[in-house]
Amino acid sequence: MLQQYRYHFLLHLIIFMWGFTGILGKLIQLDALLIVWHRLWIAALALGIFMWFKKRLSLPKGKSLLWSILVGLVVALHWLTFYTSIQLSTASLGILCLSTTTLHVTWLEPLIMRKRFSWIEFAMGLLVIGGIYFVAHDFKGEEQKAVLIGLVSALCAGIFSVANGKLAQQTDTAALSFTELSTGFIALSAYFVFQGKMSLDLFQMTQTDFYWLLFLGILCTSFAFLATIEIVKRLGAFSVSLSINLEPIYTIILAIVLLKEHKLLQTSFYWGAAMILSVVLANGIWKHKQRQKAKTNYGNAVQ
Q1: pLDDT band for position 298 (cuts 50, 70, 90)
Q2: Domain boundaries, the chain
Q3: Close Cβ partners of 226 (under 8 Å, ≥ 6 residues apart)
Q4: Which of 88, 198, 222, 241 has its CA 20 to 30 A from that of 13?
């Protein structure tokens, strides 16, 4: 029992760190492109070293390699738009826009995973959009732009989440992640070369920013990825997925405590946030009941 609680604690520690990634978009004094570039090379290097020590350093094969490369580009775009949205507005707004990922998963899964379309999930996604309206209807200028960019980030998150779900069925997950991180790093590096900006100036930063980037790349990305795989084996996919829905709550609490964002947000923001988070949690509970029902039906069928 104590062993199981240990994994629960580790899971929530990881979710807390993920919630902190949005805060880092404000704390690190670099633009979004540089934050993502540094996160990618640090995470890829850390994961590559781990795989080398474990004698698991490899790449996906055949078509899986091509799809992994394409997904890696989407991952880089997701992080870039996520941090741009946060830097244009607040960490709270950025993470709430990311909550609309569930809507995109609803229509992407039938296309990519060949799953049956769910009208209930689609309706939940529409409710999330309603929550976004409450959050953003008083915004103007840069804040409206931040909402649009944040919604693009959510679309990218939905694409790579569903695509990785399919790729992980036929590819080692560590090799998959390493390929995607490396692809994103190479793509952004090529952009810097094309723009004539590839130089040691990219590494000019404060000592504090450097430590935050190490935390973001190693702990929040590489370690969190590897630890989550082990936690899923111990606690099950549902417990993990339901708990991850707490990430926006952690981010908003951290933003209030560390960034004093409650002074910048209106009452309508919290009504919209409560609506979005309620739908996200309800979606997790509903999926759990669907799984339990499927297991019961399967058990009855084999008796």
Answers
A1: very low
A2: 29-302
A3: 47, 50, 174
A4: 88
Q: What is the mean pLDDT of residues 11-32?
A: 90
pLDDT of residue 93: 81
Of the candidates 40, 21, 38, 39, the residue with the CA atom closest to the CA atom of residue 184: 40
Residue 301: pLDDT above 50? Answer: no
Letter string b/e over residues 245-268, b meaning 16 or more CB atoms within 10 A of that residue's CB: bbbbbbbbebbeeebebeeebeee
Among 64-73, 112-121, 287-296, top mean pLDDT goes to: 64-73
Q: Which two tokens stand for residue 258?
A: 């560390």
**Is pLDDT at 300 greater than 80 in this prediction?**
no
Q: What is the pLDDT of residue 233?
A: 66
Convert the chain into a string of H (helix), E (strand) and C (coil): CHHHHHHHHHHHHHHHHHHHHHHHHHHCCCCHHHHHHHHHHHHHHHHHHHHHHCCCCCCCCHHHHHHHHHHHHHHHHHHHHHHHHHHHCCHHHHHHHHCCHHHHHHHHHHHHCCCCCCHHHHHHHHHHHHHHHHHHCCCCCHHHHHHHHHHHHHHHHHHHHHHHHHHCCCCCHHHHHHHHHHHHHHHHHHHHHHCCCCCHHHHCCCHHHHHHHHHHHHHHHHHHHHHHHHHHHHHCHHHHHHHHCCHHHHHHHHHHHHHCHHHCCCHHHHHHHHHHHHHHHHHHHHHHHHHHHHHHHHHHHHC
